[in-house]
Design goal:
Promotes degradation of target mRNA species. Plays a role in the regulation of circadian mRNA stability. Binds GTP and has GTPase activity. It comes from Astyanax mexicanus. Keywords: Cytoplasm, GTP-binding, Nucleotide-binding. Residues 152-383 form the Tr-type G domain. By secondary structure, the protein is α+β, with helices and mostly antiparallel strands. Helix content is 26%, strand content 27%. It contains 17 helices and 26 strands. The strands form five sheets. Strands 1-10-11-9-8-5-7-6 form an eight-stranded mixed sheet, with helices on both faces. A six-stranded antiparallel beta barrel has the order 12-13-19-16-15-20. The longest helix is centred in the N-terminal third of the chain and has 17 residues, at 66-82. The radius of gyration is 29 Å and the shape is globular.
């Protein structure tokens, strides 16, 4: 049998082995060998001897006194906080891993103690499995914190893989509860566009949900009239919701896939591999992207009903070799039964173990194992409500009767209804004050959202054209500043030639997707496998950044990955944006720039360099924007010839009669 610490430190596996060969599960083994990762003499359900409790005995839960009970309660609270509201508890095992099993009376007393502890922290106790060892009974329980009526635990899973691997089909089967017919029946329910239905290929980022109740049962039930899912009913019945981010597999849509992986902040990544096709196309590219972003990966091998046995075994061997390669350093584990699911889910947060599921969307084989695994997954990051709020925008909408709506992910903090936030940065790097009119979470109205949750906000008094992907909504306490330039430590994954200063490529950082130029770096040139500190500059608009953010630097396929180490804050003003001399025509024609911003820009120009606004540019401005009297007076200040300006004004036919306008024209 393998030592348990080998999972955390040394990839000693030489072949695919069933997870049942491993020692009993422990929650979240970490690289640092923390309290959750035990070796000989360390604790299974906690630290050995912690708070005066002897966890080395399997009878620690049978009849604890008052002090021991308080210690057990503190230890359980710590584990629940580490697991973001969930943990797996093993009853009947000593901390040394060798003392197994309880008799019936001791087991009942231990379970009663755990049930009492759960009531103290308002959590539910769910039996996962019961097994009989030589010394007696051993039970595994899932402890999940109870949530309110309008609240639920949320875990985001990105679905990636090569085209035709069965990503959308699997999500259709999971979320709608109906098996596929082998000819695209299940995936048709998920597509958003007509061309996707015709070609069968996903081209946009799709979102689907799978709800679990307190007992771990799936609550998704499609509407009998049309087969659509009612997200509100699912969320009301669920204590935990898995959000699937359905990404495109075709190389043509790689930038959309990269945006989904960086902008939607998935907790886990589900890599799909067609058993008949094997590891082809974009499979390695998507796996490398997940590894670069430090997202734990589990693999689902599909179409096992139509694949010959020898081809399936060959695919598994290639997959094993890829996962164990120096670039991945994963431990592949073949999941075959419920015991394997519990063990792999308990240790999956270590980011080293990689479960492999073999399923069929037509026959439904092993689908129950995958659902059980998804139910046991817990969020990897904990958040505090007292932090300043930060929300990144990944999409915008204009809803009739509601107004402008933005969707995205809450990075930290707590956002409540009617809160005042700062929205930005705009093309000039400024942030504007905005009020939250309403909040929806999974199409269900709520009063607040917390860190790690996805939501949609209806905003007051702002046009959709003024908002773009990559902008943020932050608390005024953060005093946000936009940045044109930043430094990052990058690793070049692949580049056919060399990378040198003035090289341009697309930067993906969170929901930001913009081309950047390399200004300087601490090496003359970069080749495949090189590391360097690089100074970047955005070419279009400033962005809101902070240190330790992960980024992907690509041109076509992924070229480099890295972490932001330094952010150069932009001074408030226009000189940093490059508007020292004149107003660019592209800025005038852009409807994303508000009239107030244009007025400010023109007035500054009138002071710094009068008479530089051309008549052709004036005509563009008048034809693009509705002109108010104040903007007209601003134009008069910045033009040298009132006669030419008058011709342009009357040519546009967009001014109303106003004493202010008449006075300016007569002058």
């Amino acid at each position: 049998l393998l030592k348990y610490h080998s999972l955390c430190r040394k990839p000693l596996l030489t072949s695919l082995v069933p997870a049942s060969m491993f020692a009993p599960p422990s929650r979240g083994c970490g690289e640092d060998g923390g309290p959750e990762c035990f070796e000989d003499g360390e604790a299974l359900n906690g630290e050995a001897g912690d708070h005066g409790v002897d966890f080395s005995s399997k009878l620690a839960l049978v009849s604890p006194n008052g002090e021991q009970y308080d210690s057990l309660l503190r230890q359980l609270r710590e584990r629940m906080d580490e697991g973001c509201g969930e943990t797996i508890y093993v009853v009947g095992v000593g901390s040394d891993g060798g003392d197994y099993g309880l008799n019936e009376s001791d087991m009942e007393a231990s379970v009663a103690t755990v049930q009492s502890l759960c009531e103290q922290i308002e959590a539910d106790l769910i039996l996962l499995r019961e097994r009989t060892e030589s010394g007696g009974q051993v039970r595994d329980y899932l402890i999940r914190r109870r949530v309110g009526e309008a609240d639920f635990l949320e875990v985001r899973v990105a679905v990636v893989g090569n085209v035709d691997a069965g990503k959308s089909t699997l999500l259709g089967v999971l979320t709608h509860g109906e098996l596929d017919n082998g000819r695209g029946f299940a995936r048709q329910k998920l597509f958003r566009h007509k061309h996707e239905m015709e070609s069968g290929r996903t081209s946009s980022v799709g979102n689907d949900i799978l709800g679990f109740d307190q007992e771990g049962q799936v609550v998704n039930k499609p509407d009998s009239h049309g087969g659509s899912l009612d997200w509100t009913k699912i969320c009301e019945k669920s204590s935990k919701v898995i959000t699937f981010i359905d990404l495109a597999g075709h190389e043509k849509y790689l930038k959309t896939t990269v945006f989904g992986m960086t902008g939607h902040l998935p907790d886990f990544c589900m890599l799909m591999v067609g058993s008949n096709a094997g590891i082809v196309g974009m499979t390695k590219e998507h796996l490398g992207l997940a590894l670069a972003l430090n997202v734990p990966v589990f693999v689902v091998v599909t179409k096992i009903d139509m694949c010959p046995a020898n081809i399936l075994q060959e695919t598994l061997k290639l997959l094993q070799r890829l996962l164990k390669s120096p670039g991945c350093r994963k431990i592949p584990v073949l999941v075959q039964n419920k015991d394997d699911v519990i063990v792999t889910a308990s240790n999956f947060s270590s980011e080293r173990m990689c479960p492999i599921f073999q399923i069929s969307n037509v026959t439904g084989e092993n689908m129950d194992l995958l659902k059980m695994f998804l139910n046991l997954l817990s969020s990897r990051t904990s958040f505090k409500d007292d932090e300043p709020a930060e929300f990144q925008i990944d999409d915008t909408y204009s809803v009739p009767g509601v107004g402008t709506v933005v969707s995205g992910t809450t990075l930290r903090g707590l956002i409540r209804l009617n809160d005042t936030m700062l929205l930005g940065p705009d093309p000039l790097g400024a942030f504007i004050s905005i009020a939250v009119k309403s909040i929806h979470r999974k199409r269900m109205p709520v009063k607040e959202v917390r860190g790690g949750q996805t939501a949609s906000f209806a905003l007051k008094k702002i046009k959709r054209s003024s908002i773009r992907k990559g902008m943020v909504m932050v608390s005024p306490r953060l005093n946000p500043q936009a940045s044109w330039e930043f430094e990052a430590e990058i690793l070049v994954l692949h580049h056919p030639t060399t990378i040198s200063p003035r090289y341009q490529a697309m930067v993906h950082c969170g929901s930001i997707r913009q081309t950047a130029t390399i200004l300087t770096m601490n090496r003359d040139c970069l080749r495949t496998g090189d590391k360097a500190t690089v100074h970047f500059r955005f070419i279009k608009t400033p962005e809101y950044l902070h240190t330790d953010q992960r980024l992907v630097f690509r041109e076509g396929r992924t070229k480099a990955v890295g972490t932001i180490t330094k952010v150069s804050v932009t001074n408030k003003g226009l000189c940093r944006a490059g508007y020292r001399n004149s107003v660019p025509k592209s800025l005038v024609l852009s409807r994303s720039v508000s009239l107030s911003t244009l007025r400010c820009l023109l007035l500054i120009q009138a002071v710094s360099r009068p008479c530089c606004l051309s008549i052709s540019l004036t005509r563009c401005l008048l034809q693009t924007h509705s002109v108010s009297p104040s903007l007209f007076l601003t134009l008069c200040l910045t033009n040298s010839s009132c006669l030419s300006l008058t011709r342009a004004v009357f040519h546009s036919h967009c001014l109303t009669n106003s004493p202010c306008v008449s006075l300016a024209l007569s002058h």
